[in-house]
Amino acid sequence: MTLVREYMTPNVVSVDCQLSLDDVVKTLVTRNVSCVLVVESGEPRGVISMTDLVRVSKLVPEAERRPLRLAPPNMKARDVMVKEIVTVPEDASVGEAAKKMLEGHIHRLFVRHAGGAVTGVFSARDAMRVVLDRHVETPLKEVMRSPVETVGIGESIDDALAKLDEKNLRGLVVLDGKVPVGIFAQLEAIKARSLPANVRSNPVEEMMSYEHCALEAATPLYRAAGQAIATNVRRILVTDQRALVGVVTGYDVAKVLIDR
């Protein structure tokens, strides 16, 4: 049985509960994480994810928006954090952790030592490392989700924001015809909301992230996981003769691990 402590990421990124939300998002960007632990006097008090910050960014009046400005200066991490910290013991199996992630609809679990201290994080990225090491040969087409929520490369930034909001999505795949060329996700949405209205009418191509991993549907999952880890992306775009046919997320990888 493979244990969580063998694959967890030991360095937990945390912020003080008094930190401004602008500095929280800077921490997420510079540390390349989608969630941080909120602490007070060194003790865990809650968590803030990119989803929480996107929700707050919608509340900033148009006239007050600036690059990466999320909220009025008096709003702190404690004002936005989710107090429930979902954890898993170090000696739990990766299958148990994967099941808990799916049940909670979350992309990471905080790992606790027997004494109660938070010692690491087990995330979708860590789950991909398990798949890679175990050489899971299941083809992408058997675990992918389809259809995929997309936006055309010529559609406006405002159109992309509206689609994210309307369907409560974490991201959209940007298409040039049927070919995936980029991603418009939560970080891009936060940056986009700081732009003047006339700029948001520009094509989404100007704001999308070019960082993505697109692989053919027959690709073994372990090889796809290796590519995703190497390119530091959170989702795998699945193609058939270059045309987008599906997507594999951390949830889909977690499903594969439940019985392993």
Task: Describe, in plain words, how this protein is organized in 3D.
With 260 residues, this protein is α/β, with parallel strands linked by helices. The protein has nine helices and twelve strands. The protein has helices spanning 21-31, 50-57, 77-80, 94-104, 124-133, 157-167, 186-193, 221-231, 250-257, and strands at residues 14-16, 35-40, 43-49, 87-89, 108-112, 118-123, 150-152, 171-176, 179-185, 213-216, 236-240, 243-248. The longest helix is centred in the N-terminal third of the chain and has 11 residues, at 21-31. The radius of gyration is 19 Å and the shape is flat. The termini are close together. The relative contact order is 0.16. The model has no long low-confidence stretch (mean pLDDT 91).
Q: In sequence order, what are the helices and strands, one letter per element? A: EHEEHHEHEEHEHEEHEHEEH
Estimated helix fraction: 25-40%
Number of helices: 9
The outline comes out as: flat
The CATH superfamily of the largest domain is known as CBS-domain
What does the main sheet amount to?
A: 3 strands, mixed
The share of residues in extended strands comes to 15-25%
Q: What would the average pLDDT be, to the nearest integer?
A: 91
Task: Indicate the topology.
Layout lengths: L13 E3 L4 H11 L3 E6 L2 E7 H8 L19 H4 L6 E3 L4 H11 L3 E5 L5 E6 H10 L16 E3 L4 H11 L3 E6 L2 E7 H8 L19 E4 L4 H11 L4 E5 L2 E6 L1 H8 L3
Parallel strand pairs: 1-2, 4-5, 7-8, 10-11
Antiparallel strand pairs: 2-3, 5-6, 8-9, 11-12
Helix pairs in contact: 2-7, 4-9, 5-8, 5-9
